[in-house]
Structures are given as C-alpha cells and as structure tokens.
Amino acid sequence: MIRAGIVGGTGYTGVELLRILALHPEVEVAVVTSRADAGVRVDAVYPSLRGHIDAVFTAPEVDTLAACDVVFFATPNGTAMLMAEQLLARGVKVIDLSADFRLQDAKEWSQWYGMEHACPDLIAEAVYGLPEINRERIKSARLIACPGCYPTSVQLGFLPLLEKGLIDCDHLIADVKSGVSGAGRKAELAALMSECGESFKAYSVSGHRHLPEIRQGLALATGKPVGLTFVPHLTPMIRGIHATLYARLESNTEDLQALYEQKYKDEIFVDVLPNGAHADTRSVRGSNRCQIAIHRPQGGQTVVILSVIDNLVKGASGQAVQNMNLMFGLAEDVGLSAVALYP
Ligand SMILES: NC(=O)C1=CN([C@@H]2O[C@H](COP(=O)(O)OP(=O)(O)OC[C@H]3O[C@@H](n4cnc5c(N)ncnc54)[C@H](OP(=O)(O)O)[C@@H]3O)[C@@H](O)[C@H]2O)C=CC1
Ligand SMILES: CC(=O)N[C@@H](CCC(=O)OP(=O)(O)O)C(=O)O
Predict the structure, then answer these.
(1) The whole model's pTM is what?
(2) Tell me, what DSSP letter sits at residue 123?
(3) What does the record give as the function of this protein (predicted)?
C-alpha cells in the first residue's frame, strides 16, 4: 500500500483528495493535516467520509509527514515550497496542487505571486503534472507541480491546434468561467451567495496569475512565444470550468474534428465530443474528464473550442491522483473511474 499524506486536508481540494483516495485500492491515507482542526477526527468535519477515512487531523510537521511515501500539498501558494526540500531529502515524493513549482522562471513567479521563492533550485526538477503532455517525465519524477484549474482546461483545448501549427499564435483568446469552489473554502466576501449568486462577472482582466502558466505551456507546445488574452469569470455554480477558446486558422486543409480525435484517442481522461456538440460543465462534474468540442462558425477562419472540466477533479485533486498513479507505476485511472454526477 502507498502511504499518502495530505497537507491542507480541510480545504476543498484536500477533501476532494480524501474522497478519491478513500476508494483507491492501493492507497492508505496515513497523515492528514489542518492547523485549525488539529486533534479533530476527519469524519467529524466531513461526515461524508465516515467509515471511509479513519484519521485525525494533525499539525503539518515534516517529521510526521516523512513516514509517508507521497505527500500532497493542497495548501495556499507559498506553503509547499517551505517543506518540499526536506521531504524529498527523506525519500518522500511530493505532489503540489498549488502554484509553487509551476513556473520555470523564479523571478516571474515572484512577480505574479508577490513573494520570494523559498527554494528556486528545486524548480528545474519539478515536472509539470499534465499527463497528456508529460507522461514519461511524470513516471520518474520526485516532485510534481500540478497545473492550475484554468490552465488545464485551456491547454488541453488549444494543444492539438498549436502542435500542428494551424493557428495564428499571436492572437489567442481564452474566455473562461469558473465555479465558486475555485476560490477555496476560506471565508471571502466575493464568494458569499448573496454576492455571487444571481450574478456573473469577469475578474483580473488586466492580468491573472494563471496567464504566465498558460503562456508557458502553450509556448512549449508550439516552440515559440504566444500572444494570449485570458479573461477569467466567476459564475454562480459550485464546481466547473468552462473555457471558450478562440483562434484564427491559418490553414484550411485540416479536418479539425479528426485532428482532435486522433490526438486524444488514447487519453482516458480527454473526451472529444461529436461534431457540433456543446460541452457542459454538468457532464464532467465529479469526474476526472475533460470534454472538448470543436466548432468553426459558418465555416469561417475562426475556430472555437469548448473545453470543460471539474475544477476540483481534473483541475486539481483528480489530476494529482492521476500523477501519483503514474509515479508509482499503477494504471493511470486507478481510483479515478467515477462517472459525472447528473443532474
Ligand atoms: N479550489 C480549486 O478549484 C483549485 C485549487 N488549487 C490550488 O490548490 C491549493 C488548495 O486550494 P483549496 O483547497 O481551494 O484551498 P482551501 O483554502 O480550501 O484550503 C486550504 C487548506 O490548506 C490549509 N492551510 C492553509 N494555510 C496553510 C499553511 N500555511 N500551512 C499548512 N496548511 C495550510 C488549510 O487548513 P489549516 O489552515 O487549518 O491548516 C486548508 O486545509 C491552492 O494552492 C489552490 O490555488 C488548484 C486547482 C484548483
Ligand atoms: C474562482 C477563483 O477564484 N479561482 C481562483 C483560481 C483557482 C485556483 O485555485 O488557483 P490555482 O489553480 O492556481 O491553484 C482564482 O482566480 O484565484
């Protein structure tokens, strides 16, 4: 059995990890941390886990976590980087759901995240945990930087077009909507039902911290810098990300539906919908799937890609477990076969 630790077990991605790992046949959840709830049983905070997780929240301490084979950090940015080095030195694999190791340039990271990086030397070793592009490197990694939720939906949507060089890379547009759980469980005015219910708004239009992460991934796919306008929106739903992606085609020869189907034909967690379909977040809620639909309105030069995920599953905890499966030589979908909840 793989002994797993979760730092930040009371947050939304933490409890989603617990939900997934509770039914994972190869994992025993050995340590779950929370500073605020240290000493409290996990199933007292989350009764849904009664009979599934027999653990008590503890304070996050390296000595306790070092008894694990793998530690997930489901913590705010700036936390994993303080403990990762010590855990790796003690032979523990680290899977970080936060942004601490996502950007390859420590200076750029500091600018977007507003703090100095505590261990810039580890950044080069971290493998960006998007299995659809980095599967082989993930298998032998010690440290995984799980992609952000918006970046997962946008990169999976744009990749086939970029890899084939079919679009104008200077003017990409990602118009993306997120459910409120994307903001985490902490109390926040903007996430109150009376603030975001019955309303819909864009935010961080002048620059969101996922912009450099998405640009970095797309530039790697195409081999040159990309020009991207990324506008996130907050929608009054709990889970889900819906990305509407726009690009200008530079070639008319390719059958785009066939291109996407071919690119993702062996990917368990990327589902290309039939021609003309409209992807919806409800159809991936609770599942580790990304569903993608391709459109070319009026047969013109603009291609519109719809890409949907559950931000807490393929956008965070499901993808983290997908990475863990690869790192430990398991089948990629162990523990991740849940079908979306409907309605
Ligand atoms: N929500 C989402 O959809 C997604 C989130 N992410 C990323 O995953 C990470 C977790 O997000 P989310 O679950 O939403 O966050 P939450 O705010 O819901 O939970 C944060 C958790 O971290 C713990 N924590 C907070 N500060 C510290 C600290 N300094 N040291 C140790 N533990 C700490 C909290 O418990 P306590 O304070 O009691 O210790 C809590 O359990 C973030 O980096 C987020 O950006 C990534 C993709 C999607
Ligand atoms: C709706 C909402 O607030 N979403 C969050 C992003 C999601 C997140 O947790 O960020 P990471 O993926 O980088 O970890 C935000 O815009 O700050």
Answers:
(1) 0.97
(2) T
(3) Catalyzes the NADPH-dependent reduction of N-acetyl-5-glutamyl phosphate to yield N-acetyl-L-glutamate 5-semialdehyde.
